[in-house]
Amino acid sequence: MNTILEALLTPDQVQLTDADRRAAIAKLDSAVRQAALTPSQASDRHEQVLAARTRGELRGILSGVANAAPPRGLTVALQAVTGVWLVACVVQFVVWLALAVFGHFDGPWWLWSDLGLGAIVAILWWTNETYHRKTDVLVAP
């Protein structure tokens, strides 16, 4: 569970996997094919990708390559909405539990808002992850 929260609250600190490195190298190769990078620039960045440890470092390496890394705003939105969601979950559960202790037991009404916010977190996470999984870059016409 801790790794899930880590990925949601600090997505730039997530350790790179081999799949992340392969996808980044494929993006660099795609950028060379589309003349967005020169072969020597891509070669330098290949070495940096192999030495990188976190997704935040990878973001810096892929800077200047369009659509290669998630926008900073998406990462911040993921962190903010996840934080709000976790706080809302805990507060609503504690209120529900306190009401139950004092004899006002209702069904788990707090699930509706927690599931709704959770869906937003899931969409933001999925969008953020698609940047790390795709293997090509798109150049604007």
Instruction: Quickly count the helices.
Output: 6
Low-confidence regions: none
List how many beta strands DSSP finds.
0
The oligomerization state is single chain
Radius of gyration: 20 Å
Strand content: under 5%
The biggest beta sheet is recorded as: none
Strand and helix order = HHHHHH
Cα-to-Cα separation, first versus last residue: 42 Å
Shape: elongated
- Overall average pLDDT: 87
Helical percent range?
A: 55-70%
User: What is the structural class?
Assistant: mainly alpha
Give an overview in words:
70% of the residues lie in helices and 0% in strands. The protein is an all-alpha fold and 141 residues long. It has helices spanning 2-9, 18-33, 39-51, 55-61, 72-101, 110-133.
Q: What's the helix and strand layout?
A:
Elements: H1 2-9, H2 18-33, H3 39-51, H4 55-61, H5 72-101, H6 110-133
Summarize this, please?
The protein is mainly α. It has helices at residues 2-9, 18-33, 39-51, 55-61, 72-101, 110-133. The chain starts with a helix and ends in an 8-residue tail after the last helix.
Q: Any key phrases for this structure?
A:
elongated, 70% helix, mainly alpha, 141 residues, 6 helices
